[in-house]
Amino acid sequence: MALAPQIIGHRLGSAQAQHTIEIYLDYVCPFSAKIYNKIRQQVWPYISEQHPNQFQLIFRQQVQPWHASSTTVHEAALAVEKVDSTKFFAYSDVLFEHQKDFFDESVEALTRQQVVEKLARLAESVHVSSSQVTQLLKNGTGEPKNSGNAVSNELKQCIKLGRQNGIHVSPTVLVDGIRDDSVSSSWDLNQWKDYLKSKL
Questions:
Q1: Strand partners, 175
Q2: What pTM did the predictor assign?
Q3: Which of 26, 125, 137, 149 has its CA 20 to 30 A from that of 83?
Q4: Side by side, which strands form the sheet with 178-179?
Q5: Long-range contacts of 160-165 (CB under 8 A, 24+ apart)
Q6: pLDDT digits over 15-26, tens only?
Q7: C-alpha–C-alpha distance, residues 178 and 182, integer Å
Q8: Among the listed ranges 87-101, 114-128, 134-148, 149-163, which one has the minimum average pLDDT value?
């Protein structure tokens, strides 16, 4: 599946792979964290070893607006990618690891700027400049124009794609462009192995 140049870091594997797994994920969704961690720690290493060049994995960002910080957290991932596209997955690892720091209750008393500062500090852990991330996430001051920030267009693109494809919740998995609601965040590695073999 195609990826716009601005979000090229969202792919694992070769763009020429025979099969494509797309996963719509929200950084502050516990079920997204569960499936993402399983894939990163077990499933993708298995694919890389046993089925090289047969699958590519695309991370699709799925903002869920009922989680107060979701938009800002997703913007931070896009900002890190804008600074260094090779750090997108490493930063995503960190975001899911620190997911509870951005749950509704954790950010209730924080301003958006304070949330941005927390996210920017996490960027330092993957060797991306916190000041660059903060700058990209500034919405500006002065006359109100509602013009967003330096990653607003990338975020809009992600959201438009999800809407276009009728994606409502996270995680949602597509294989070769077809949504498959049978895929579960609770699957163990053996279930993933059987599933992947069925797609070859």
A1: 21, 178
A2: 0.95
A3: 26
A4: 11-12, 55-61, 19-25, 172-175, 178-179
A5: 161/60, 162/24, 162/60, 162/61, 162/62
A6: 999 999 999 999
A7: 12
A8: 134-148
- Bridge pairing between strands 178-179 and 172-175: antiparallel
Contacts of 183 (CB under 8 A, 6+ apart): 35, 171, 173, 195
Residues 6+ away with beta carbon under 8 Å from 110: 118
Two structure tokens written together for 193:
């192995």
**DSSP 3-state percent helix, strand, coil across the chain (nearest 5):** 50, 10, 35
Residue 195 CA to residue 200 CA, distance in Å, equals 9
Mapped onto helix, strand or coil, the DSSP state of residue 68 is: coil
The alpha carbon of residue 135 and the mean position of all alpha carbons in its chain are separated, in whole angstroms, by 20
Tokens 């069925």 correspond to what residue? 198
CA separation, residue 29 to residues 24, 61, 115, 161, 174 (Å): 11, 12, 17, 19, 18
